[in-house]
Write a structure and sequence with these properties.
Helices cover 53% and strands 10% of the residues. By secondary structure, the chain is α+β, with helices and mostly antiparallel strands. Among the domains are: 179 residues, Beta Polymerase, domain 2 (2-Layer Sandwich), CATH 3.30.460.10; 123 residues, Orthogonal Bundle (cca-adding enzyme, domain 2), CATH 1.10.3090.10. The strands form 3 sheets. Strands 1-10-9-2-3-6-5-4 form an 8-stranded mixed β-sheet. A hairpin with a 5-residue loop joins β4 and β5. α16 runs antiparallel to α17. The structure holds adenosine-5'-triphosphate and magnesium ion. The site of adenosine-5'-triphosphate (ATP) has 13 residues, from α9. GO terms for molecular function: ATP binding; poly(A) RNA polymerase activity; RNA binding.
């Protein structure tokens, strides 16, 4: 018993390249070949028939063992990208930094990656890093053992061979998954320094798979979280998007806060979690996103980020309105300010920023329930997203229930019913507008637009 424990500990600590992996048979791992997509199986078989090693690797093996449906299937092989390309009729090499091959099998695209080599003392070819130790370039081919060692967590370094129905496990990943532990391969501090995004991945994968992060991997996160600042914004945006659309966003965000990862590092999360008013709204938005993901419905990143940042916009917009500034121009001012701050950290793409603005800009227009204006709102291209957003504002208590109910009835009503629903134009509506233009500081917010 003790010897077994010691050998287990040593085996893990001293995971050297020469260590023989465990070859786990189907009777032990229970993963069924039928759960692998046909295209992926075919890809692996073709590579093997051509004399190369080929395995399904990473998230797909992990998810299947955990009883989840994988998002996609990745293949790792001993063949170089050129060699892979020659094995298939429809395959193309993509990527510059590290080439991978996209193999098309019917409607499926399988990503095939050549085993990557080890960087560090033993590999001889030290990877290029920045001053903090973040790996900038790391594009050497290597053996399967090296490929396994450079993956992040033990549960992500499992290689499934659908032909032999075995799992090749260099780092006790199958056991860790059974014990519900997310364990880093190698020294966690070194691995976080090489790539700080691994801290976010730890939180996301733990939430997704209901794993607990091994204390050795968990402890350094609090003190090393600052390194995330060095990560390029586009990468951070991708990772945040993955986290928020994982179907477990509520759990992820809660755990990020527990790990102290939200503070000062990700302005977005600072915003989300540090304002009591906004927290309810954001949590409702994340709950509804999680629900949609789990039901297999599409979600729009624009909608998601619009919800996350809305209370920040309100915080800037309300004082402007209270000072008597015109409502719509000051809303646009507030929107731009908020998005500019985010742009420094998260590279929100222009298209998504456009979607976010459309949704926000519709909000004051939902107050307009008279005459042609209401019909105009219905015809906006982003009406549906704006309306869903309004309903969240209602649910969080920010907007009167009556406003949400009115729009639901208007949206679903017949032409006649709609016409009957229109509110009369408030008598002071036009006059007040004029008055406000003459003496801007003397009046309150536009009654049309007041919340
Ligand atoms: P999911 O697809 O559910 O988001 P995943 O683990 O498959 O999770 P991918 O980004 O698809 O994540 O990565 C595929 C595999 O590549 C991982 O399982 C892991 O083995 C390896 N990997 C990904 N990112 C890193 C990283 N930052 N450091 C080391 N290995 C990584
Ligand atoms: Mg994956």
């Amino acid at each position: 018993m003790i010897r077994k424990f010691i050998s287990r500990v040593l085996g893990r600590k001293g995971a050297r390249q020469s260590d023989a992996p465990a070859i786990i048979a189907v009777a032990q791992h229970g993963l069924q070949r039928e759960h692998i997509s046909r295209g992926c199986r075919r890809t692996v078989e073709t590579l093997q028939e051509n004399g190369y090693q080929a395995y399904i690797v990473g998230g797909a093996v992990r998810d299947l063992l955990a009883g989840l449906t994988p998002k996609d299937f990745d293949v790792a092989t001993s063949a170089t990208p050129e060699q892979v390309r020659h094995c298939f009729r429809r395959a193309r090499i993509i990527g510059r930094r590290f080439q991978i091959v996209h193999v098309n099998m019917g409607a499926e695209t399988i990503e095939v990656t050549t085993f990557r080599g080890h960087h560090g003392e033993q590999g001889g070819n030290k990877a290029q890093t920045d001053e903090q130790g973040r790996v900038l370039r790391d594009n050497v081919f290597g053996s399967q053992a090296e490929d396994a060692a450079r993956r992040d967590f033990t549960v992500n370094a499992l290689y499934y061979d659908p032909t032999a129905e075995t799992i090749v496990d260099y780092h006790h990943g199958v056991a860790d998954l059974r014990q519900k532990t997310l364990r880093m391969i190698g020294d966690p501090r070194t691995r976080y320094r090489e790539d700080p995004v691994r801290m976010l991945r730890a939180v996301r994968l733990a939430a997704k798979l209901s794993l607990s992060i091994d204390p050795e991997a968990r402890r350094p996160i609090r003190e090393m979280g600052g390194l995330i600042e060095n990560v390029p914004p586009s990468r951070l945006f991708d990772e945040m998007l993955k986290l928020l659309t994982s179907g477990h966003a509520v759990r992820c965000v809660t755990q990020l806060r527990e790990e102290g990862l939200h503070h000062g590092l990700l302005p977005l999360l600072d915003v989300i979690l540090d304002q009591a008013l906004g927290e309810r709204f954001v949590m409702l938005a994340l709950e509804s996103t999680d629900r949609r993901v789990r039901e297999g419905k599409p979600i729009s990143p624009g909608f998601l980020f619009a919800t996350l940042l809305w209370h920040e916009v309100l915080a800037k917009w309300e004082p402007l309105k209270a000072r008597g500034e015109p409502a719509i121009p000051s809303l646009f001012l507030a929107m731009d300010e908020v998005l500019d701050v985010q742009a420094e950290k998260l590279a929100i793409t222009r298209r998504i920023a456009g979607d976010i603005k459309d949704i926000w800009a519709l909000q004051p227009r939902f107050e307009q329930r008279s005459g042609k204006r209401a019909y105009g709102v219905l015809q906006q291209p982003r009406f549906r997203a704006g309306y869903d957003f309004l309903l969240l504002r209602v649910e969080s208590g920010e907007v009167d229930q009556a406003v949400g109910d009115w729009w639901t009835a208007f949206l679903n009503g017949s032409d006649e019913n709609r016409a009957a629903m229109l509110l009369p134009q408030a008598p002071g509506e036009v006059k007040k507008r004029r008055r406000r233009r003459r003496t801007p500081a003397a009046t309150g917010p536009d009654p049309d637009l007041a919340q």
